[in-house]
Amino acid sequence: MRTWNRRRVAKIAIPLAAWLIGIVFVIPILYMVLTSLHHPQDAQTYPPSWGAPLTLENYAGLFTSASPITPALINSVITSVLSTLLVLALAIPAAYALAIRPVKKWSDVMFFFLSTKMLPMVAGILPLYLFTTKVINMPDNVIILILIYTAMNLPIAVWMMRSFLVEVPPAIIEAASIDGASTFRILTRIVAPIAMPGVAATSLICFIFAWNEQLYAKVLTSVAAQTGPVYVNTLIQTEHAYLAELAAGATLISLPVLIAGFAAQDKLVQGLSLGAVK
Amino acid sequence: MASVTAPPPTATEPAAGRPPEAYKKWGRESWKLRAPLLPALIFLIVVTQLPFVATLVMSFMSWSAQPDAPERSFAGLDNFKTVFTTPAYRTAVLNTIEMTVVVVGVSAVLALGIAMLLNHAFIGRGLVRTMMIAPFLIVPIAAAVFWGNGILMTGFGLVDGVLGQLGVPGAQDIAFLTDHPKLAIEIELIWQWTPFMMLILLAGLQSQDPEVLEAASIDGCSGWQTFVHMTLPHVRRYLELSIVLGTIFIVQNFDSVLGMTGGLNSTNVPFAVYETFYSAKDYGVASALGVVVVIGSLIIATFALRVVSSLLEEEN
């Protein structure tokens, strides 16, 4: 009797608790979206004007204002996409050398990669800033950001790619090699199909981290190479109602990450755990 | 950004136990094998290790970029003395520790609870999971500025507004960001990082064999007994992994401080480095602070590497 009651309680309490917590976590985002759809003067009231009319003017304003968001979005796309491609170009061969035909002391190399990720980004920022602005005189340039984001994501990518390539059975490669298949053929016909989901997961994670980065972007860019996250911070104003436009900017730059993350929820877990969780 | 000593190689190393002739072949072929590794290694060393060496050198120099500052010179340990004797820097170190411990601790407990809820089947589980993940998919600086301006802002923020509508007197004047700046940042970080930890823990829970749990239940184990003796040992590694990764990200947090309080009574070490070099233009002290951060991170990293290496061993 007792267990029956308990089961029954659990059957109601668990979904109820889960829904409640889910709603609490999503409220700030829903409120951000609602605020972005209100007129600027309705968005900044005490108490909140819940039922105020909805509008897209804040989003339109982001593109038509005196300093529009468009160049920042373009810079964000360029830096995130190109750094992700560069990461893949460097990480895939490295992972191959660590997984399929492992070099001696491969685990030391793996831990070297990982340890560079564990040390704070901020520790190298000053020399990189001085080098960029004083030595090579390339301030405000996306190329520098692309290189830095590549280095930032490379350790994660090597770890993830290795965890996928390790799953390629060595016996198949050996058999193909004995049958006279070229390295190129082995790579394209055997390794690539097994590694493709890994490439997708790795790209997703590297794209998100590059897209989100703000500290280096803030320090190393000013106008021409400004990225989305830096732009959003400039929407904070004191002279007029700014909250609605700030909410619109915050929503807009988060949209690509939200879409990519929701579309690939399981890959997200794999990526965030460096491939340790499958 | 320096390297730390890797834990001793494990017995799983491929070279171990190889016959001598294989070693010879290994030697001939080794450069062919190593070649694919080199671009990544060289790139990483140039972009992350060399700047750190420069930071180390600069930490021993008296170097300010202020217009009236004296010439660059060797300063010995003066910069480190400044870092350890200036109250503001000591506070930044303590704030970093406090915020990291609070955020990672609370997030881990919350994440485990939520992951256990989501491990049950119920109507709308997929939707709740999606709702739970969403905070992690908001760009950190965007989340921070909206929390600072739209949710916790005095007066027109969501929290003051809702408290006012619930009849709390003087709700309009509650100033979370200035009265409790660290707590405000901690809440925002917990909101953003609990989903991350939850995802890893949920993956761990789902890898648990349901038949074992069923057997425990048939044998009369209580829910608590099952949790302590079966679930907890099973998810321990996942819990460690999420704590380690969470710590790495939270220690480095810069966006929440900048976006929410601008450092007011809540400066952490990354923010202090930024301010010292970017605003105060004291390159020597900023570098010394950077070196201190790295030494602190080495301690975390040594522990972190042990956790990850145990996962790697298990895999092999």
From TrEMBL, chain A:
Keywords: Cell membrane, Membrane, Transmembrane, Transmembrane helix, Transport. Gene3D superfamilies: MetI-like. The chain crosses the membrane at residues 12-34, 72-99, 111-130, 142-165, 186-211, 241-264. It is a multi-pass membrane protein. Its main location: membrane. InterPro entries: BP-dep_ABC_trans_perm (IPR050901), MetI-like (IPR000515), MetI-like_sf (IPR035906). This is Sorbitol/mannitol transport system permease protein. It comes from Nocardioides albus.
From TrEMBL, chain B:
Its main location: membrane. The chain crosses the membrane at residues 37-63, 99-118, 130-148, 189-205, 238-263, 283-308. Residues 93-304 form the ABC transmembrane type-1 domain. SUPFAM superfamilies: MetI-like (SSF161098). Pfam families: BPD_transp_1. One of its GO terms (cellular component) is plasma membrane. One of its GO terms (biological process) is transmembrane transport. Keywords: Cell membrane, Membrane, Transmembrane, Transmembrane helix, Transport. It is a multi-pass membrane protein. It is found in: Cell membrane. InterPro entries: MetI-like, MetI-like_sf. Belongs to the binding-protein-dependent transport system permease family. This is Sorbitol/mannitol transport system permease protein. It comes from Nocardioides albus.
